[in-house]
Structures are given as structure tokens and as C-alpha cells.
Amino acid sequence: xxxxxxxxxxxxxxxxxxxxxxxxxxxxxxxxxxxxxxxxxxxxxxxxxxxxxxxxxxxxxxxxxxxxxxxxxxxxxxxxxxxxxxxxxxxxxxxxxxxxxxxxxxxxxxxxxxxxxxxxxxxxxxxxxxxxxxxxxxxxxxxxxxxxxxxxxxxxxxxxxxxxxxxxxxxxxxxxxxxxxxxxxxxxxxxxxxxxxxxxxxxxxxxxxxxxxxxxxxxxxxxxxxxxxxxxxxxxxxxxxxxxxxxxxxxxxxxxxxxxxxxxxxxxxxxxxxxxxxxxxxxxxxxxxxxxxxxxxxxxxxxxxxxxxxxxxxxxxxxxxxxxxxxxxx
Length: 330
Ligand code: TF8
Fold this sequence. Notes:
Elements: H1 2-13, E1 23-28, H2 36-51, E2 56-61, H3 69-78, E3 83-87, H4 110-118, H5 120-127, E4 134-144, E5 146-149, E6 164-167, H6 171-179, E7 183-186, H7 192-197, E8 203-206, H8 208-213, E9 222-225, E10 230-238, H9 239-242, H10 247-281, E11 285-288, H11 291-311, H12 314-329
Parallel strand pairs: 1-2, 1-3, 6-7, 6-8, 9-11
Antiparallel strand pairs: 3-10, 4-10, 5-8, 5-9
Helix pairs in contact: 2-10, 4-12, 5-12, 6-11
Bound molecules: (2R,3S,4S,5S)-2,3,4,5-tetrahydroxyhexanoic acid.
(2R,3S,4S,5S)-2,3,4,5-tetrahydroxyhexanoic acid (TF8) is lined by residues 30-31, 69, 86-87, 142, 168, 189, 206, 210, 231.
């Protein structure tokens, strides 16, 4: 009785938050806090706070403290976690069409990636997540992937032979690198540093920004610039949680996500342009694979690429091709 009266009084005075207020969002990511993921996450948290005037609060958890990408994905689907950013590559088990972003040499530059990812092709793929219990908000940039290893400088396609290479947990990466003669080993990112350190694997491939922030230079001597595939990241929300939000809160998060996308890409590109020099300064030996050698790698991977693209939904592949044609003639 007393309690109820107090509550009514507080409500009348406006001192008690209304029902839809004070939402706390747990946002997880796999890289450490110094990474471009960390920068993007902090930006997103601030933007959500600003746009919601403090009504929505986002706590960020870096370094895989909420689990590796696959585990977080499942937590989102089950409603045990609200949001995350991670690789699109780990979504392939759920929605095979996401494998389109893992097709080697799909994009020639960032402009092509932005155009296709933010255009109808990329957006249509985001919408397919709804049926799987996820909401796909925006794509961030991980970047063009390059190769590191601790065995030898890799300058030619043949140099890949026998290198035990950690790849993402995804059949496209596995098959592509198997076709080049390397020995691909799928492993969660969270286990990668130790695997490199213990020499369970010889090498890995990731954008230079990620190689730098994850301090792979401490355990990898050789860096080869290959830019063999562009990896986007994807900002995801739990659908069961999202559906319980007001339309206004959903709109705030959508707007903040778009702002974070633009910020993170710009940040990533600035960081990327300085990363190779920084990695050299840390003692890495850098080799740039020539276009001729890259063409040989692409030729080795060609049967895999045909198999992968052939298995995609034709609408997805055609939409990507149409969008690419658009940006290439623009
Ligand atoms: C990889 C990816 C990672 C992402 C990240 C942890 O190699 O490039 O950067 O999975 O979200 O696993």
C-alpha cells in the first residue's frame, strides 16, 4: 500500500522512468579495444546515447569477452545478448548466400565495396537475417585481407605450398586456400594469437589494421600484401529483443548504426594507410605480391570460385554483379 502510493507519487512527479526507458544494450566484438572495431563500438555507443538523450545505454565488450563471433551470433538469436559486430564469414553456416562476400577478388577497391554493400544487393542480404532471428543493421569495414606467416617470405603462388594457414570457419576460405596448395586450418579468431605463438599454425590472413591491433607482428615475421579478398563486418541485433523496442528506439539505433558505419570506414582507411609502415617498424618483412603472381593465385582458386558462385542464389549473385557493373561504369 505504502509502496504503491510512493510509486504513484514518484510517477506524478516524473521521477520514475517510464516503462520503455533505460534499455541497456550489451554490444560485443572480437578484436581488442585498440582495434578499428573498438573505435567503431565506442562511437556507436556515444551516438546511441546522444540520439536517445540517454534513454538507451550501450555497454561495449571487446576482446571476445562475450565469446567468439559464432557464439555471440547464437546468443543474439537466443535473445541472451542484444548486439554485436563481427565477421560476415561466420554467418555463412546460417545463410549460405553470405558467402558472396568471401569470393576472392570480388572487389577491386573500397569504393566498389561500399557501393555494393550499401546498395540493393547488400541490403537484400541483410534482410534475409530476419528469418534467422537476427537484424542486420549495417556493414563496417574489416578490410582487404593480407597474408602473414612465420616460415618464409611469400612472393609467388608456389610459396604458399604447405603453409599451415589459419582460415575463418567458413567453407569458401577453406576451399580457396586448399586450392592454392596451402594447408588451411579453420579456427576461431579468439584462438588465433596463441595458435600462431605455439606454432600450431604457420600463418593467417587478415587486413593490416587487424594484424597491427592484434599484435600478430609479435609472432609473425613475414607479411605479404595480397588484398585477396575484402572482408566486411556486420552490425547485428537480436531480433527477439529488437521486436520489443519502440519504433522510435529502433530508429535511433538505425541512425546511430549508419553514422557508425561512415565513421568506422573512414577510421579504418586512415589506420590502414599507416599500418604497413608501423608493421615494418615492428620488424616485419614486407613483400608485395605482383599482379602476375596474384593472377596465378586467382587461377588456382578459379574452380573454387566457380563452385561457390554457382551455389549462390542467382538473385544474390546477379544483384552483386549488377551493382558492380554500375560502380565500374560510374
Ligand atoms: C577473422 C576476422 C576477424 C573477425 C572479428 C573477430 O579473421 O577477420 O577480424 O572475426 O570479428 O576471424
